[in-house]
DNA sequence: GCCTAGGTCCCGTCC
DNA sequence: GGACGGGGCCTAGGC
């Protein structure tokens, strides 16, 4: 069975339910709870309705009714325990390194589900910085005529250079790539790499180019004053399609046809 | 009613269910689906079991059975629509700025819940950078004897200085605060501010201090070579307790007492 | 384990 | 709306 659920469970059934499904299914509790966290920081959250999600890998999310971000959480690798204390149901998640403890005081569970979430597919994403790197190596003159990329992720003491190359006059060229609008931080990053290279090879023989679809105003000003360069380039999106071994069997959804329009 | 749910719904009931609860409740679908996203980047995700969460503020999350992060998402402010197309149930979320479209092809819904998630409490968090700022303003000699903080979040063309002050010799002192171990980026940030101030007030009259609980090795090396300083300081955690207007009424959970030990 | 940097980062805040 | 930087950032990839 893919899904088990309890509606308005009492504590005994809830405990058994969690015991049975934890580390095997994703458990979701629609609950009224409060939360205490202590670790890298420390927080409290008073009583309210929230969604608790516990995944088999130990990650834990507590969601409010707004925002993409969980209000409290624990990353994967954390370990779950739970008990009754002073007549309250408490879920505790502990992360070892760094030491972080999250406690959920659960006052009421309106609904609980456990989902044996079988997923063998990974996200296929394009338009990231890596795609820019590939594009530049395949077609270096996107940067400029005569540019020769030499290595990617080139490590120096002050960081990791996205692309290191040479121009047609044999100057070192350091590229810092950004998939989105570059900001002050991006310029500082490029400058850090360029300064190390200049200290090694001399002022005149090192250039730094920020490669991005656009620049913030502050970044542009700083770039100019530091004699760094900008090359406008947008990360490429490769063509993608969903594999079409799909929609074959037991699509319980396809039972009734409705108007083919957005609701 | 706090929670409505459907178990193994057919499409007609599912559509009505969503129509009824969207923008009012958090909707959770335990489903088999695939996902297409196109916006700042572009992605596909082939068929598999996932948890879909749609919040009243328009945020949308698609979770796999692992990790804290959703595999696909849309932030709050996005708008939801849905339809049947080629006998498939499709949920579409559109974000206006930047333009981003997310489409979920839903093959099967094992379980659906709608949760009228009432929450009037906000997270109360301590141990953040702001707490360090407060601490330093209250007790400036935590930085050094004679330090006088003058302003916080002081804006200059190359960014925003956490704390600007003067030392006992009337030198400008620029503090860059980090609540956690400071890295290369932190040093570059501080350097960027210091260089602007030096260009304005002269080399000898500006100091830069990185204030953090610790430093990465690379950051330490860079800091030294740039003649910047480090002051070890850990963000303070204020005392906090949950407000105790709690555990009064209708705690359906407290029906059976179990052993008071962690399970 | 530490270090480094990317991210569809999200998010708040201030201009 | 752009800009800037924090975050309990998370996560991946090297070493």
TrEMBL record, chains A, B:
<feature type="domain" description="Endonuclease NucS N-terminal PH-like">
    <location>
        <begin position="25"/>
        <end position="122"/>
    </location>
</feature>
<keyword id="KW-0238">DNA-binding</keyword>
<dbReference type="GO" id="GO:0000014">
    <property type="term" value="F:single-stranded DNA endodeoxyribonuclease activity"/>
</dbReference>
<keyword id="KW-0963">Cytoplasm</keyword>
<comment type="similarity">
    <text>Belongs to the NucS endonuclease family.</text>
</comment>
<dbReference type="GO" id="GO:0003677">
    <property type="term" value="F:DNA binding"/>
</dbReference>
<protein>
    <recommendedName>
        <fullName>Endonuclease NucS</fullName>
        <ecNumber>3.1.-.-</ecNumber>
    </recommendedName>
</protein>
<dbReference type="Pfam" id="PF01939">
    <property type="entry name" value="NucS_C"/>
</dbReference>
<dbReference type="InterPro" id="IPR002793">
    <property type="entry name" value="Endonuclease_NucS"/>
</dbReference>
<keyword id="KW-0255">Endonuclease</keyword>
<dbReference type="GO" id="GO:0005737">
    <property type="term" value="C:cytoplasm"/>
</dbReference>
<dbReference type="Pfam" id="PF21003">
    <property type="entry name" value="NucS_N"/>
</dbReference>
<dbReference type="InterPro" id="IPR049173">
    <property type="entry name" value="NucS_N_sf"/>
</dbReference>
<comment type="function">
    <text>Cleaves both 3' and 5' ssDNA extremities of branched DNA structures.</text>
</comment>
<dbReference type="InterPro" id="IPR011856">
    <property type="entry name" value="tRNA_endonuc-like_dom_sf"/>
</dbReference>
<feature type="domain" description="Endonuclease NucS C-terminal">
    <location>
        <begin position="128"/>
        <end position="240"/>
    </location>
</feature>
<keyword id="KW-0540">Nuclease</keyword>
<dbReference type="InterPro" id="IPR048302">
    <property type="entry name" value="NucS_N"/>
</dbReference>
<dbReference type="InterPro" id="IPR048301">
    <property type="entry name" value="NucS_C"/>
</dbReference>
<keyword id="KW-0378">Hydrolase</keyword>
